[in-house]
Write a structure and sequence with these properties.
The protein is an alpha/beta fold and about 260 residues long. About 35% of the residues lie in helices and about 25% in strands. It binds adenosine-5'-triphosphate (ATP) and magnesium ion.
């Protein structure tokens, strides 16, 4: 589904954010990426839709070269990728429904969307997406009147309405309390299991990764230092990801 081939990213100014990443992600995978701040997690996600262009190497999505795609092809590739953000990125003064409909923007003419003339089919997809995250009853509420967890569910619904093949979530629960974080994570997991959408989630914490993840990828200083099942992370692996300064018990809940 997604393949990284010798991917390097050096930002202008010389920061090396990714070093020789080789990685294969299968259709339907649910992957969690962990690493300290600055390890390169966001950069890695962004190379998948070419928001960050690798300095060398190539990223492929369903066999298509994302890194070197021309404008039109890149648009098509991006339409297959749903994004979920830490700060939700909703239009606060718009209703939940309108926010979700923006996920369908690439399928509707600009004039129609400005006038709010959304075709019935488009609305149906938006309602379906809201139903998937069980927040249908909030369709006509202003986004700003929802709690953080509800706003993130709208964020998920917006990404879903796009009918994506791949869902990228960059620290989707970093602004939420621990309980709400679990609710949001379980919706991401549900969507992955029920709809088969390949999902990649960046997280800071291993406890959530342990609860929800299958495959864990660890990054440190731009290098891939772990790739395996989250339940097989040894103390040595942990040290490779986080360094000596943190004990695994600090980040993994005792259960
Ligand atoms: N646009 C940019 N220009 C220059 N340097 C950047 C840019 N974006 C990120 N960096 C640098 O690249 C490195 C990796 O950053 P990245 O945002 O991918 O890390 P991260 O693992 O997502 O961190 P966090 O957990 O804090 O979100 C960091 O050193 C960061 O300062
Ligand atoms: Mg980040």
């Amino acid at each position: 589904m997604i393949k990284f081939e010798n991917v390097n990213v050096t930002y202008p100014g010389g920061v090396v954010a990714l070093k020789d990443i080789n990685l294969e992600i299968k259709e339907g995978d649910f992957i969690i990426i962990v690493g300290l701040s600055g390890a390169g997690k966001s950069t890695l996600l962004r190379t998948i839709n070419n928001l960050v262009k690798p300095s060398s190497g190539t990223v492929y999505l369903e066999g298509a070269d994302v890194t070197n795609a021309k404008k039109k092809e890149l648009k098509l590739i991006r339409s297959k990728i749903g994004m979920i953000f830490q700060t939700f990125n909703l239009v606060n003064r718009s209703t939940v429904l309108k926010n979700v409909l923006t996920g369908r923007l690439s399928n509707v003419s600009t004039i129609k969307s400005i006038l709010g003339l959304w075709p019935k089919d488009e609305k149906k997809l938006a309602f379906e997406a809201l139903n998937q995250v069980e927040i249908l009853e909030k369709a006509y509420v202003r986004a700003s009147n929802l709690s953080g967890g509800q706003q993130q569910r709208v964020g998920i619904a917006r990404a879903l309405s796009q009918k994506p093949k791949v869902m990228l979530a960059d620290e989707p629960v970093a602004s939420l309390d621990p309980i709400t974080s679990r609710v949001v994570m379980s919706y991401l997991k549900k969507i992955n299991t029920e709809l088969g959408i390949t999902t990649i989630v960046n997280l800071h914490f291993l406890d959530l990764a342990k609860e929800f993840g299958d495959r864990l990828i660890g990054l440190r200083d731009g290098k891939l230092v772990f790739d395996g099942n989250v339940n097989e992370v040894s103390d040595d692996d942990f040290e490779n990801i986080y360094g000596r300064s943190i004990k695994s018990s600090d980040l993994i809940g005792d259960d």
